[in-house]
Structures are given as structure tokens and as C-alpha cells.
Design goal:
Shape of chain B: globular
Number of strands of chain A: 33
Largest interface: A-B, 75 and 72 residues
Oligomer: heterodimer
Number of domains of chain A: 4
Structural class of chain B: alpha/beta
Helix content of chain B: 40-55%
Strand order of the largest sheet of chain B: 2-1-5-4-3-6-7
Shape of chain A: globular
CATH topology of the largest domain in chain A: Immunoglobulin-like
Radius of gyration of chain A: 25 Å
CATH superfamily of the largest domain in chain A: Cupredoxins -  blue copper proteins
Distance between the termini of chain A: 64 Å
Largest sheet of chain A: 8 strands, mixed
Number of strands of chain B: 7
Number of helices of chain B: 11
CATH topology of the largest domain in chain B: Glutaredoxin
Strand content of chain B: 15-25%
Chain lengths: 675, 246
């Protein structure tokens, strides 16, 4: 009822007049958005005094139809009123007593018996868990994908009156009871190298989708080294023979089914002569991974609807305790100083309903920025160091995020990146002022709020995306001025004195490692030596060079002039060998984050530039950003598992329009150079 | 079975603009009932200032505030316009009412003298799919090929094209008024966002769009992908096991 009581102060009148000038110029809210005059919160940026209330007029009256799902049409919201939430940790379950396991104990072979209650097999999986005898699971988890009709993107009363409770699809904490609701982002999975993991995921979604999302799911553990049975890929010619029967195709599974995902929690290389005894190459340790839906042709809408969450992998060096190992900020007790930040952008209809255009081709650009599921939240931080694991959750936006002091936009506020943009530790932390993330990329950063407070005197610091992007095709590559981008999150530095901090300053880590003569700061997790053309060991020796051109033909995505094909593998990689892949973007004004399943790669060249130590792209990665007309060269080792995996564009809308191929890893490979 | 009620759009008016269509939907639902509390508050709060927004206010006075559309109504309005079309057999049909509503459909755009390779391959793929689907086309799955050149592609020309390509029953080739074909093309997502790119007909979007209208499931595949792949995708889409009550 605040509107009824509302008085009309001077600033509002000025704002309204300014706004009127723009309206009279015939510009709709949508056009203003495109011109960059209006931001996600509904503020007009260029003219002072064009305030929120004035823009409310625009939202209600100008340019947007009822139900319109386009940038600039979402209702205005007040930023920084919701505290930043953190997804709860997925609890471990007792495999012998939990009813989610006892009705069908998890077996290496899938349970393909028909469930009389549903008429379809109990389990969606059709393949055997590879290497499960060698790595018997020790940690068991359950999660149930459920619709949640009461998810809120802001709990502020005014915001809630415009964007009310929504239907999202999420993952629950594993309980069968209905009070254990689907959460988005999903619960945080915490795993540790050496403790093999089994996650049972139930599909308890419904056909009532409210216009987007399909209720079959395949949960991909993004960039983990997993067998095809547990990778959660989109489709696989190796499953169900060549049957078209949707019940035996074996990748995605249906309402009423479960699927057991098994992860060895061993490093890549565990089945090679070099690293068999050590259960893999310690240099291949992964830190921040994530899980998300991968339903073929419908991934974008399902992930956008909420089916995604983060996964942290600890080890004997990256321990989660700042008094041990690398002494990175503590994860335990959670949530404390090592925290997930999932960035997503959303669209709402003017009436405030989450929407997604399933008929769009370019990709979806949202005008509401959510972090961990809330629109532009705030987070009270202590005067000490934090580790944030930042993930671009898509569907189509690229970010280049900075730290901005809203009261002094010209201040430059550096922070430290400790991983590549795929969550794998760098050789040395790098001090940066910004990091660019394309869809599905992740970076772990260290932000020292005590240092920032000392240097700037600021109590308020915002995470700001300053990369301009006006459509789903990709960013323009223009970096906007500080304060002109999208504010994602506000940090509020609290406390009259520095807080206890037993973590090491990144510069200290580097200095200590140098003093001790270590190979890299995070020794022994240093970047592995690159494969070469004449290495002694076959898994280090480049066996074949393959070239992939990403093209667009009649509005369809093609790779080497061929379209997606779920019925056959495009080429065969020989297991436990290395390959060189050259990726070329021949698609004109588009940019693509290319993701390859199964193994990390090392980028050795971007166009004419060699990637060298100290570059954030030097290290292990699983998403390769392919900019306008770029060419990149990647080196891979393909080890341990046999079976099929995809390479695809992780702009999930491009992915759903078939920018994908499938490859097989087998005992004997082929030599196709342009497969 | 799974009991969800999916509302069906009540009225589809030919040749009207979007706003008029919504207004009609709103009017049917009776003005004040249709107005949400939020809209009320917004209107009351803004009452002193709406003078500046004359056109809008006038519109508001004449027409009731439209009610929120259901997702299915929204999809129909934005993507499945109920335009009048003529089949290659010379029959007049309404796109939404007669061809799409409550159906599983596969839709592509083509033209008969399309020599760029896309149309012949896509048509051949669809012919192959029609065979692979073993008589289901026309029974529970419907194929529609819509011409991009309605000025040239008369029903007779389309009929000849269908005959030459051994098209079986349940697959319609469609033409109509150019502006309505255009509306359909944009609605169904066969237009490029770049106008220059969009103007080149030989570069037209060569995908096939498939959908299950009552469940609001819509997807797309490259029309030039192998028919075996397309068959898999269609069966995954059209034969999903529906949840059963335990």
C-alpha cells in the first residue's frame, strides 16, 4: 500500500520530467535497455534523477506487452535488500538404512527391473559403472529433483509484490518427505579425493512446467573425470544399442526413475602405467566443479529453470582448513570464508513470471542478475580474506567482473585469482582487476576485505559485470565504465577491527614457495607437463592432430560441415594417448564457450599468441572461449575410461541447437584429421 | 493418469495486432475481475501523473486491463498465431486451431524452387522420417512445411512438389498471404535477429521445429542432420512415458 501513501518529492518530479523527455522521444523501455540507458534494476543510467519510481511507469506502460519475455520487460526491483544465501551442503546418507537406497541398493550394474508403480525401469542408467570395483564408493548421497512452486528471487516485500513466488526446478537434500523441497541452486556437494562418491538422483519433476522445461534429466558433473555411465552427457550411441526406444537410450531419465552416478574421486591417469600406483596424477586434481542438467535439445531451459549446483573437491593440500595445507581461507564450518557464488541472469514477464523463450535462436540475455538465486543481494563480510568460487551459470551471458567502490568509481580494486577459469589451481596466484567468464566457466578468487578497507576506506564494495552484451550471440567485447555495468552483489565490510585470519596472503604463498624452491605455489598440484610429439610415454605423446571448424549453415550449427548426430561417434580417440585439437570459429559475429567432456586440456595458442606461464589460460581447462574468428590450439590426454563423450558449445541455447559432436575413446583410435 | 488442466486460448482473432488480441482476451474475462491487485495499485499510485502518458491512459479507459495470460496462451499468442493458410490440397485451415492445437507437430520452412541444398535435403530427410515413423504421420504426429515464397508457391505448385517427393498423408505443405506467412515465420523462430542476414532467402533457417502443443514442449533440430538422428530426437520427444500414479 506504499504507493497510496506515496508523496511526490522534488527529485521524483525531476526524474519524471526527464523520463518524459525520453518517452516523448518515442523510445520504449526495451529500446532504452538496448541503448544501455536503463539497467537491470530499472534505473536510468545516463540522466541523473531518473529514478526507480519513474521507471515504474515505463515498465507498466511502455513498450512491453503482457507476458512479453524480453530484456527490459522484467519488473523493476530494488537491489541489495536480500542477504546473499548459500546453498546447504548435501548430507551424506547411510546406504544400509536410508529408504532411498534400501528399496534398490546401489549396484555396479543398473537396476533395469520394471517398477510396477511406474511401468518403466527403476533406474534410467543402462551402463556399468567403470572402475567401481577398484574404487568402491565410500560416500553416499541422495538428491531428488523436484518442482518448487514457491521459490523467491527476492524476499523484500516490494520486490515480492512485483516478482512473486515462482516455479523453479531444483535438487533437494535427499529426503523423501515433501517438506524437503527442490532448491535452486542445488545443494553444495562436498567431496574429497580418495573417498569415492555415489550420488543417487531421483527424477520427481512434474509435467506442469508453466511453459518451459522438459521433465527428463541427465545430470552432468561438469569437468569431473567420469565414465560415460556417470558423466551425465546428452546422448550416446553406445547406450541401448541403436534402439530408438526412449526407455533404453540410457542418458536422460524419466519421472519416477532414479540414476546412480559414481565418481572414483581419483585423479586422471589412474589407469596408466605412470600413475596406477598413485591412483592418478596428483597434478590433475580438480577443485571447483559443478553439476547441471544436460537433456539433449533442452539443456538451456532446464538449467535456466534451476537444475544446477556447485560441487567442491578437497584434498590433502586444499583442505578446507586455513591452518593446514595451502592455507586457503577455510571452508569449514560452512558457510564461512570459502563460498560459492553462482551467477545467473533471468527474465520475467512484466507481471513478474519467470520466462524463457523456447523459440529463440540466439541465446537468452536476462535483465535480472541473481547470485545464488537472489536478485542483486548483499553480503556482510569481515575484515579478512575470503575465497569465492564464482560460476557463470548461463544460459548465454559472458561476464567480466570487477570490484567497484560505488562511492569512488575511479578506484581500482585488485584481487587474486587462484585458479584458471575452470576451477583448477594455477601455478601461481595472479593479481587481477577483473576476470572474464563465459558460460560454465568458474574461477576461484581471493578477496582481502581488510586490505581493501585499508587501501580505500570503503565499507561498501560491489561485484560489477562491466562486459557489454546486448544479445545472446555473445558479448560486444566492450568494457563499460565503472558504475555503468551490472551490479551483481554488494559486499558490506563490517567490524571495527581486522578479523582473525589464519589464511595466507596470496603473495605470501608465492614468496614461501619460492623460498622453499617449490616447482609452483600450489606444489605438488602444478600444471602437468604438456604432451609433446615425441614423448616416451604413450599418454604424453601426441598421436594425431584434429581440426574442428565451428560454422553456421542456414542458421544451424555445424562442426566441420556436419550436424549433430546422437546415433554415431564422429571419431575415435585411442585410450591413454594424447591429441592436439585445433578449434576454429568460422561463424561470423558469434562467440562460443566450447566444452569438452572427460579430460582437461591445456591451451597452447590463441590465434598467434602462445599461452605462457602467468596467463590465466595457462593451466588445465575444460571450457575454451572461442571469440570472433579465433583459432585456438589445445592439447589433451584421454585416459582411463572407455566410451562416448560430447564436445559442444556451452552457450546452452547454441548447444540445444545442436552445436555438438560425440567422440569415442576406445582401445584403438582413428587418424581422422577433420572428423 | 496425470491430471493437469491446461487452459486453451479462448479467442484467436485474425489480422489483429497483439495488443488488440490481449485486450479481447482481457475483455472476455471481465474488466475488474481481470485487473490484478498489483495493476490496481500501480494505477492508483500513478493517478496524479498519468496525464503525461495520454495514449496509454486513454487505452486504459477504453479497454480493461488485460489479465495475466497462462503460459499456454502466451505461447499461442507469441509463437503460434492463428493465421489462415491454404494446404497443397487447396483446403483453408487455421494454423493454431486446425494444425497445432492439442497435437504433436514437426514444422519447417521451404520453397519449391529452393536450390541451395537445404530444402532438398530437409525434404528428403522428412520423407525418410515419414517412413521410419511407420504410419504415425497423420495419426498422432503431423508434419507441416510452410513456404517462404507464398507469391510463387500456389497450392497447386506445392501439390506438385509433394507429389514429386512422394510425400505421404499427414504431411501438409502450406501457403497463405505473405504478411501472415511472415508473422508465422517470426513467431515460430525462423527469423534471424540480424535483418541483413534475414533478408537472404537462400540462407533461410534450415531447422525443423518440433513440439507437443498441449504440454508446451518445443525444440528444434537441424533439418539437414541424418534422419536416424532426427528419428531418435522425435521419439524422445513424442514417446516420453507419462507419469503414472503409484
Amino acid at each position: 500500500m506504499h504507493l497510496l501513501k506515496y508523496h511526490w518529492p522534488k527529485l521524483q518530479r525531476i526524474a519524471f520530467r526527464n523520463r518524459q523527455e525520453i518517452i516523448q522521444a518515442g523510445l520504449s523501455r526495451r529500446e532504452l535497455f538496448k541503448l544501455g540507458l536503463i539497467t537491470s534494476a530499472g534505473y536510468l543510467v545516463a540522466k541523473k534523477g531518473l529514478s526507480y519510481w519513474a521507471s515504474l511507469n515505463a515498465w507498466a506502460s511502455q513498450g512491453c506487452n503482457v507476458g512479453q519475455c524480453e530484456p527490459g520487460c522484467s519488473p523493476p526491483t530494488t537491489p541489495f535488500v536480500d542477504p546473499l544465501p548459500f546453498p546447504p551442503i548435501l548430507p551424506e546418507r547411510d546406504v544400509f538404512t536410508d529408504p532411498g537406497f534400501t528399496f534398490s541398493p546401489p549396484t555396479t550394474q543398473p537396476n533395469r527391473a520394471i517398477n510396477p508403480a511406474t511401468g518403466i525401469p527403476f533406474e534410467g542408467r543402462t551402463q556399468t559403472h567403470q572402475f567401481r570395483d577398484r574404487f568402491p564408493p565410500e560416500k553416499f548421497f541422495i538428491t531428488r529433483m523436484r518442482p518448487n512452486f514457491n521459490a523467491t528471487f527476492s524476499d523484500d516485500a516490494t520486490n515480492l509484490s512485483r516478482i512473486g513466488p515462482q516455479l523453479v526446478w531444483g535438487f533437494n537434500l535427499g529426503g523423501a518427505e515433501s517438506s524437503d523441497v527442490g532448491r535452486s541452486p542445488g545443494p553444495l556437494v562436498v567431496a574429497r579425493y580418495g573417498d569415492p562418491v555415489l550420488v543417487r538422483r531421483f527424477n520427481e519433476l512434474s509435467m506442469d512446467t508453466r511453459g518451459f522445461g522438459v521433465p527428463e534429466v541427465s545430470t552432468h558433473h561438469h569437468n569431473f573425470h567420469s565414465g560415460p555411465d556417470s558423466d551425465g552427457g546428452p546422448c550416446d550411441p553406445g547406450t541401448g544399442g541403436f534402439s530408438t526406444d526412449p526407455l533404453v537410450q540410457g542418458r536422460f531419465f524419466f519421472i519416477g526413475q532414479f540414476y546412480d552416478y559414481f565418481h572414483t574421486m581419483a585423479r586422471a591417469g589412474f589407469d596408466t602405467d605412470q600413475f596406477r600406483l598413485t591412483d592418478g596424477d596428483i597434478k590433475e586434481t580438480l577443485t571447483s566443479t559443478w553439476y547441471h542438467d544436460h537433456r539433449v535439445d533442452h539443456t538451456a531451459e532446464n538449467v535456466y529453470k534451476g537444475l544446477a549446483g556447485q560441487w567442491f573437491n578437497f584434498n590433502d593440500f586444499d583442505t578446507g582448513d586455513e591452518t593446514t595445507g595451502f592455507r586457503l581461507p577455510s571452508f569449514f564450518p560452512y558457510p564461512s570464508f570459502d563460498l560459492p557464488l553462482i551467477l545467473t541472469d533471468k527474465l520475467f514477464t512484466p507481471e513478474g513470471e519467470l520466462c524463457f523463450d523456447t523459440f529463440g535462436l540466439d541465446g537468452l540475455i536476462g535483465d535480472k542478475f541473481a547470485v545464488n538465486g537472489k536478485i542483486q543481494p548483499f553480503f556482510e563480510v569481515q575484515r579478512r580474506r575470503y575465497r569465492f568460487r564464482v560460476l557463470d551459470g548461463g544460459p548465454s551471458r559472458f561476464y567480466e567482473f570487477f570490484l567497484t567502490n560505488p562511492n569512488n568509481l575511479s578506484q581500482r580494486i585488485p584481487f587474486w585469482a587462484i585458479t584458471t577459469t575452470d576451477g583448477n589451481l594455477l601455478d601461481d596466484p595472479i593479481q587481477v582487476e577483473s576476470v572474464r567468464l563465459s558460460v560454465a566457466e568458474r574461477v576461484d578468487i581471493i578477496v582481502d576485505f581488510e586490505e581493501i578497507f585499508r587501501n580505500t576506506g570503503a565499507r561498501t564494495i560491489r561485484l560489477e559485470n562491466r562486459l557489454e552484451q546486448t544479445n545472446g550471440r555473445g558479448p560486444t567485447d566492450k568494457i563499460l565504465r565503472a558504475g555503468q555495468g551490472n551490479f551483481l552483489l554488494e559486499f558490506r565490510i563490517v567490524g571495527n577491527a581486522p578479523a582473525t585470519d589464519n589464511s595466507l596472503h596470496p603473495q605470501q604463498m608465492i614468496n614461501d614457495a619460492r623460498a622453499l624452491g617449490k616447482a609452483c605455489t600450489f606444489d605438488p598440484i602444478c600444471t602437468p607437463p604438456r604432451p609433446t610429439d615425441n614423448a616416451a610415454a604413450q599418454e604424453d605423446r601426441i598421436r594425431v592432430t584434429r581440426t574442428f571448424r565451428f560454422e553456421r549453415q542456414n542458421g544451424q550449427w555445424a562442426i566441420n560441415q556436419q550436424f549433430v548426430d546422437c546415433t554415431r561417434f564422429r571419431f575415435k580417440v585411442q585410450r591413454n594417448t594424447a591429441e592436439r585439437w585445433i578449434l576454429r570459429n568460422n561463424s561470423g559475429g558469434w562467440q562460443h564457450p566450447i566444452h569438452i567432456h572427460l579430460e582437461e586440456f591445456q591451451m597452447v595458442r590463441r590465434n598467434d599468441r602462445l599461452i605462457q606461464l602467468g596467463d590465466i589460460e595457462f593451466g588445465r581447462k575444460d571450457v575454451a572461449r572461442l571469440g570472433f574468428n579465433e583459432e585456438i590450439e589445445l592439447l589433451f590426454r584421454f585416459r582411463d575410461f572407455r566410451g562416448g563423450w560430447p564436445m559442444h558449445c556451452h552457450n546452452t541455447i547454441h548447444e540445444d541447437h545442436a552445436m555438438m559432436l560425440l567422440f569415442e575413446v576406445a582401445d584403438v583410435g582413428d587418424n581422422l584429421t577433420n572428423p | 493418469m496425470w491430471g493437469i488442466i491446461l487452459p486453451i486460448p479462448r479467442e484467436k482473432q485474425m489480422g489483429r495486432g497483439r495488443l488488440q488480441e490481449i485486450a479481447i482476451l482481457g475483455k472476455e474475462k471481465k474488466a475488474m475481475v481481470a485487473m490484478t491487485r498489483r495493476a490496481w495499485l500501480a494505477m492508483l499510485g500513478l493517478a496524479p501523473v498519468v496525464g503525461g502518458l495520454a495514449a496509454w491512459a486513454k487505452h486504459k479507459n477504453e479497454e480493461p486491463t488485460p489479465q495475466k495470460l497462462s503460459p499456454r496462451e502466451r505461447l499461442q499468442r507469441d509463437h503460434l498465431p492463428n493465421v489462415e493458410l491454404i494446404t497443397h490440397e487447396g483446403k483453408k485451415v487455421r494454423f493454431y486451431d486446425n494444425l497445432v492445437k492439442d497435437k504433436k507437430v514437426v514444422i519447417n520452412f521451404m520453397y519449391t524452387n529452393c536450390g541451395d541444398g537445404t530444402c532438398p535435403i530437409t525434404t528428403a530427410n522428412l520423407v525418410r522420417l515419414q517412413t521410419l515413423l511407420k504410419g504415425r504421420v497423420g495419426r498422432d504426429i503431423f508434419f507441416y512445411s510452410i513456404t517462404l515464397k507464398p507469391e510463387e508457391d500456389t497450392p497447386a505448385a506445392l501439390g506438385k512438389y509433394a507429389k514429386n517427393h512422394h510425400v505421404g498423408p499427414g504431411w501438409l505443405f502450406l501457403t497463405g498471404k505473405p504478411e501472415e506467412i511472415e508473422r508465422l515465420r517470426r513467431g515460430l523462430g525462423f527469423a534471424y535477429s540480424d535483418p541483413a542476414e534475414d533478408a537472404d532467402k537462400s540462407n533461410h533457417v534450415g531447422m525443423i521445429r518440433y513440439g507437443t502443443e498441449p504440454l508446451m514442449f518445443w525444440g528444434a533440430s537441424p533439418g539437414m542432420a541424418r534422419p536416424e538422428h532426427l528419428l531418435r530426437v522425435l521419439l524422445w520427444e513424442f514417446d516420453r512415458p507419462l507419469p503414472r500414479k503409484a
